[in-house]
Amino acid sequence: MISTPLDVAAGLVDYVIDNPGSSAVLAVLGLVGLALAFLLLRLLWRVVSWLWTRYVATRPVEDILTIVAASIATGVSAQGMWRFSGDVLGFDGPLQLLLFAFIEVAMVTSAVRARRSMRENGRAGVDGLAVWAMTGLSAVLSSMDARSLPEAVFRLAAPIVAAWLWERSMAIERQRLTGRTRINWRLTPERLFVALSLAETNDRTATEVDTHRRLTRVALAAKKARALREAGASPRKQRNALARLDRAMDRAVEHTGLVQDPARQEQMLAQIAALYNTAKLTEIQPVPFWHHLAEERAEREERERKGAEAMAVLRDFSGRRVLLPAHASASAGVNGVGGDTPRDTVNGTPRGTGGGTPNGAAGTPRDTAGGTPNGASGGTVPTPAPRPRQPVTRPPRNVSRKPNGSRHGTAAQPSKEELTRRIAWLHDLVKTQPDLSVTDLRDKAVKEYSVSPRTAYRYIEQAGLAPRDTTGGDTAGDTPRDTDRDTTGDTPPDTA
Fold first, then answer.
1. Which pTM was predicted?
2. Which regions are flagged for Low complexity bias (predicted)?
């Protein structure tokens, strides 16, 4: 008798009524089992999501499909090795489970190593060869235990398909890393079609190809007609050549738009010019690329030679002493002779005695013989002139004052309150010591405020304790004009 869902529900209700304690325990265990199942499903979902994000989402679709197909083919190969290990080797139980797929595991390991070698060294190396060797070994061993020919072919094909998919993925990665393929085939369909004039190597349209061919026919027909005329061919040959040229020109004008397109006109004329002057190619002297290198080297050596000559001339000129002649005559003698040299005169009168001639001579310079200085027989004496010196230019020094008057830092003057306080201090000093002179006041002000003598004397003038005999006020100078130096002449000369 087949029980219905209602009968099952009625039996459960009767069991709960009859056994309430065990029913409660079973209910609690069921709830715990549901909670554990929920947690396991959640953990499984997280693991799958992490694997998808880490290994699947970042890969292209073709890589994922390659991995899936290779895994299926490897599984088929492993199933053949399971049967081979059981039927031929006699493995059974746990021993067969542990040892049947050792070739597939080694093949996958070699494939992983080959991929790492590709990423690090740019080539698969010996591990790539090991993948193909183990693939062939697994295919042969699996097919040896086949029970029919189709099964043997299937077991041979499965590992080879897995290895081929791995090789193609490696080729794509190799091209991505190195930018080149392993080999370039010389005989390809594209090259065969180009050799048979069935395809072209560029992407010209049909109109461009037809235009080029018609203009080329015109240029070749013109060259043929000119060659026959220059060779003195028979009139019949020349007429046939001109007729072919005329037909080619008519077709070019009709189908290429030669009359309206200046670019095509220039293209046709360029072809004709190149064909007419083919013989001139034998007269061209091509320049090798190393000729420019030789010219550059010669120019560099010439520049270096000229630079060395210029430096030698400059050193010779700088080491040579130039002697300039000094015009000495009766009106201008040596060492101030003649009475017109400023350095030998004092207040307009030449130094020495004897008729206004220096050195005490009577109109004749010292050490002269026969009217010639120093006993020379000529009228001039070459005297070495001092070498001209370039004026030394120094950058202007920005002199500033601190609030106390010393030169340092940026421009700063004492405030009005500070200046008033210093002047009051000078007045108090004079009241307490009335016998102080201006020089004593200046020295005390220098010692008290650490200022220069000029600044101290300016304070004394502003206090009215020193005479103001300067010209132009305090802006032109801080001391009277008849002082010799700013550093020492800070007081008038008539003060004691």
1. 0.35
2. 466-478
Rg (CA), the chain: 59
Cα end-to-end distance, the chain, whole Å = 152
Tell me if 160 sits within 8 A of 135, measured CB to CB.
yes
Name the least confident of 41-50, 165-174, 469-478. Answer: 469-478
Check residue 332 and give its pLDDT.
42
Alpha-carbon gap, residue 133 to 110, rounded angstroms? 10
CB within 8 Å of 336: residues ≥ 6 apart: 343, 344, 345, 350, 351, 358
Residue 409: count of CB within 10 angstroms of its CB: 11
Element (H, E) at 456: helix 453-462
Tally of CB atoms within 10 A around 457: 27
Closest of 262, 277, 266, 280 to residue 223, by C-alpha: 277
Please give the Cα distance from 87 to 100 (Å, whole number): 11
| Whole-angstrom distance, CA of residue 340 vs CA of residue 358 | 11
418 burial level (CB within 10 Å; 0-12, 13-18, 19+): middle
Q: Which two tokens stand for residue 98?
A: 């542990």
Classify each residue of 169-181 as buried b or exposed e, where b means 16 or more C-beta atoms within 10 Å of its C-beta.
bbeeebeeeeeee
Q: If you search the block for the tokens 């010389």, which residue do you land on?
A: 186
Tens digits of per-residue pLDDT, 413-437? Answer: 788 888 888 888 888 888 888 888 8
Which pLDDT band, with edges at 50, 70 and 90, does 82 fall under?
A: confident
351 pLDDT higher than 70: no
